[in-house]
Amino acid sequence: MRLPASLTRIIGIANVVVITVAVIGLSLMPPAEGRPHAGPAAAVGIVRSPAPPAASPAGTPPGVVATPEFARQVKANEAGLVPVLMYHRILRKRVASIDRTPDQLRKELERLARDGYVPITAAEFAAGDIRVPAGRYPVVLTFDDGHSSHFALDASGNPAPDTAVAIIQEVAARYPSFRPTATFWIIREPFGLRDEAAQAAAVRWLTEHGYEVANHTWSHPNLRTLRKRKVSEQIVRVERLLRKLGAPPSRTLALPYGSMPRPRKVARSGSWDGTRYDFAGVFLAGAEPSLSPYAKKFDRGAIQRIQSNGKKGECRKWCSQYWLEWLNKHPGERYVSDGDPDRISIPASLRGNIGAKRGLQLIAY
Question: Of 87, 148, 283, 344, which sits with the fewest C-beta atoms within 10 Å of its C-beta?
């Protein structure tokens, strides 16, 4: 069951406050193992992005065409909820409540793999380009701030041990159905690197290996406190940086602190100094799983995320451990793929939950 709207708003506000306090606290703390914290086919409303690079073993098996009988067999529900997990620093010794250790990240990813989740990028999710094998569940792994603990290359040109990318690659090697991908939202010094050549090498490695590198604003300000022009400047400066480093234009934006600017549409599209931006999805700090991108009420300008954490303190009821357990206990509420990216399969009782104007074929069984 979905949470009542009033409770969702309360939880959302509480979680933004938690993130804001934690991130401000990080800015006042000394660096810990790295630089200090600096701080979403042809269809109406759906833009199909290219298929992920040879992704793989975990991509949709070629030739799968969903039918009502097949959808029923795999219990497909593409109107269900999707966990979009939010990570910050990955440190051997946690400094702030939103930090995770390498072991905690590894255990959470292994749990996702065992439970049948397959990672997709934020851009793929926001665009409704969900290519997940039949009977499995999409999950979006997102990392804010482009911290050095997310990605670094060792002397051999491989991801450095215990960085987020190294752990993702390691888990994917042990669980072949777990696609090694994630979204990294960066600010002005990607992955704590100041040298442009090193920044470009990092971005190149990630994009060539199927990861998304996208926009988290230039200096991680609270966008709600800025004028419209300044909001656009913060976004465009990162777009120009990514272009200089050889990355494609961002398709997604993560709002610093989850704070929405005024007017909110400036977060989704706009321009500054002759450079335009237009995002498929804008992501919040989060409090609960996201609606399916095919759902009538899905708002690609304010996509929910879930903070990765245990069930203590403020995370007792709305961080990742709680929500992953909740989804396992309520399988009828979770997004289950039909394995066919050209069709949306749902139980007949949920027909009214799907957006009316879709170019994808609807199967209601």
Answer: 148
